[in-house]
Every structure is written in structure tokens, then in C-alpha cells.
Specification:
Blueprint: E1 9-11, E2 37-42, E3 50-55, E4 60-66, E5 69-74, E6 79-84, E7 89-93, E8 98-102, E9 109-114, E10 123-124, H1 127-133
Antiparallel strand pairs: 1-7, 2-9, 3-8, 3-10, 4-7, 4-9, 5-6, 5-8
Length: 139
């Protein structure tokens, strides 16, 4: 199983141009999986939190397309906070990691590139079930 240390910030390539920059993301090129689903969070009210789940198999690349927010990653033993605030950085979240999101700035857009189509069966939505899945004792 993966730990929070396996979830890293990845520098995405930037093509600089005086008319504006562009970043290109390609399946199995600069993303280590085939993108099966793309979604984004926006208009998240100030003070709101999102997430509160893990996935059995899904991998994600998360990009702050606009604004900023914080991810709290949890592998059942350790937690790690990652602040995202630039569109040329992606957070690669591996399977089996609990995630929560907070501190959304006004106007933020959280872009998510996912390795699987949506299936409810891939979600772990209860933290105690997550800890059991990770084979840890709740203390």
C-alpha cells in the first residue's frame, strides 16, 4: 500500500509565450496513467471542506487551475498537508490515501484528472472502514 510520502507534487511543463503560457497533460507521457475522467470543483464557499474519502484503485492528478486550496492526505498512520496554488504543479494522489480539502480561496478551481470512470464501489467513505482497510488499529 502507498503512504502519504508516495503522493508528491509534480512540476508540469510550461510552454512560455508572450501571449500566455500553456501546460499540456498527456496520457502515459507526463501523467503516469490514462485519464478516464476529468472534473473540477468551483464556487466552493469560504470555510467549506471537501473530500473525506479514499479510493481503492483510483489515482488522481490534482491541479489548482485557479486560486488555491489545501489537501490533507492521510495513510492511517501519517498525515501530510499539501498547499496547491499554481497551475503548473499537480498533486499525484495514489490509491488507498484518505484525502480532505480545505482553505479554498475565492475563485479557486480545483481540476482533477482521474485514472478511472466514476464507480461508487471504489470509494471508502467511512474513516473507520478506511483504517480497517489499511489494517491499522483505531486508537
Amino acid at each position: 500500500m502507498f503512504s502519504v510520502h508516495d503522493c508528491q507534487l509534480v512540476d508540469l511543463p510550461i510552454v512560455h509565450d508572450k501571449a500566455g503560457n500553456i501546460t499540456v497533460l498527456e496520457n502515459n507521457n507526463n501523467i503516469p496513467f490514462n485519464i478516464k475522467r476529468v472534473y473540477y470543483l468551483f464556487d466552493v464557499p469560504m470555510g467549506s471542506e471537501r473530500g473525506g474519502h479514499a479510493h481503492y484503485e483510483l489515482q488522481q492528478y490534482v491541479v489548482a487551475a485557479s486560486g488555491s486550496f489545501t489537501f490533507i492526505l492521510d495513510d492511517g498512520k501519517e498525515k501530510k498537508e499539501v498547499f496547491l496554488n499554481h497551475p503548473n504543479k499537480a498533486l499525484h494522489i495514489k490509491p488507498g490515501i484518505w484525502r480532505e480539502m480545505k482553505d479554498f480561496s475565492s475563485g479557486s478551481v480545483c481540476l482533477v484528472l482521474a485514472s478511472m470512470l466514476y464507480t461508487e464501489d471504489d470509494y471508502i467513505r467511512d474513516y473507520q472502514n478506511f483504517i480497517k482497510y489499511r489494517n491499522y488499529e483505531i486508537q
